[in-house]
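Re: the request from the purification team.
They wanted to know what the chain is likely to look like in 3D before they choose a buffer screen. I agreed to run a prediction and write the result into the notebook, where they can find it.
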Amino acid sequence: MKKKRGNMETKKLVIFIVIALLVLVVIISFLPDKESSNPQDNVFEEQRAQYTCEEKCSDDVNCLRACYYVDFNKAIVAKDINLCNNVNDMIRQYCIDNVNFAKALQENNPSLCNDIVNQDLRESCLNNPSGE
């Protein structure tokens, strides 16, 4: 009998530790993120965000390609044609077309499809303006 009592106490202790860890995780997840207390960190982040892809990547073609597509995707998500000015000239019109496509679908407005230069994308937009 004494052995069972020891096992019960061990089980209770393990359960208590597990519950305590879960409570700790829950509490930590609700704590607000700590802002940087150093204003220089924020200035550095702002300056870094303002660099063009060419400034960030120099002549690294893979870096440039990835950078342009990050800006390209930001423009589409924001549905902001002005953000397409940040991408390379070779894909700028493609960016503008995709932003117009996204806006036409979101607003269910097929007239926006007429602003799309790429014929295939325009036809796709006109045939499916509701995003269905």
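For the purification team: Residues 57 and 64 are 6 Å apart (CA to CA).
Please add any questions underneath this entry.
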